[in-house]
Amino acid sequence: MPLLPGPRDRAADALPDPVRIRLAAAGAAVVTVGAGLGLRAVATGDVGKYGGDALYTVLILTLVVVAVPRATPLTAAASALAVSWGIEFLQLSEVPAELSRRSAVARLVLGSTFDPPDLFWYAVGAAAGWLVHTAAGSVTGRRAGSPGRERCR
Known about the structure:
Blueprint: H1 7-14, H2 18-42, H3 45-67, H4 73-90, H5 95-102, H6 104-110, H7 116-144
């Protein structure tokens, strides 16, 4: 066991703890759901619908980070966008509409009808989630990698 931390030790110290990342992402998911419910309560028309689409993708991004805490912001955003677009394109079939008739949960998760503008708003949500995830990583990285924070062994 070395007395002075080497480059590998500092690199390990600079990485955020996966448990903390998961907790932060789970908290962000709860906030996102609250924002979506709040938006539904106060906004109508296109603002409520398309704002909800963007938040849907942000929620998926937070769930990606809960599942894979070391995912880069770009990977998490791209994964969330791919899932959102995949579900939207699935709506071209009858499967989501049929499931939505049988279950309120399926209606919330899968929707029922394809709407091309949704694809754009999912991308807006992915971009917003990417920005927040990147900013959060920058703050965490600066704190974790700041000088004078070396551990004694």
